[in-house]
Amino acid sequence: MAYPTRRKLNEKYVSAYMADISTASSAFVVAPSSGTIEIAYSTIYNAITVADAVWTMEINGTAVTGVSVTVANSGSAAGDMDSGTPTGANYVNAGDVIEFVSDGASTTTCPVTFTAVIRERS
Predict the structure, then answer these.
(1) Strands (E), the chain
(2) What is the pLDDT of residues 30-56, one digit of tens each?
(3) Residue 107 DSSP symbol
(4) Where does residue 104 fall: left (phi above 0), alpha (psi -120 to 50 degrees), or beta otherwise?
């Protein structure tokens, strides 16, 4: 049996739901505390078709550097996870709005959940 991964006490996880990654749209969540976004994830609910979907992140309307994540349509299936690691412009203050933005390039209606990991400022 594998041991569970220990969660760091200074990390917060926030999630946002988007009804369809195949439509150009956004999903929003508010940062519960100040810190840096260390990584962000997406998990799709079913396969997408025709083209890849690409999502990015913004904080209060400013692009987070280094996060342009491709969700591949080839071989996609429910539960597929993709991630992006910010390289800059990833500091949030408590109450800032984190936005996940889809380019809507794929087809087939596909819900998606986004999760961002915020490492709190010490």
Answers:
(1) 11-18, 25-30, 35-44, 53-59, 62-71, 81-84, 91-92, 97-102, 112-120
(2) 999 999 999 999 999 999 999 999 999
(3) B
(4) left
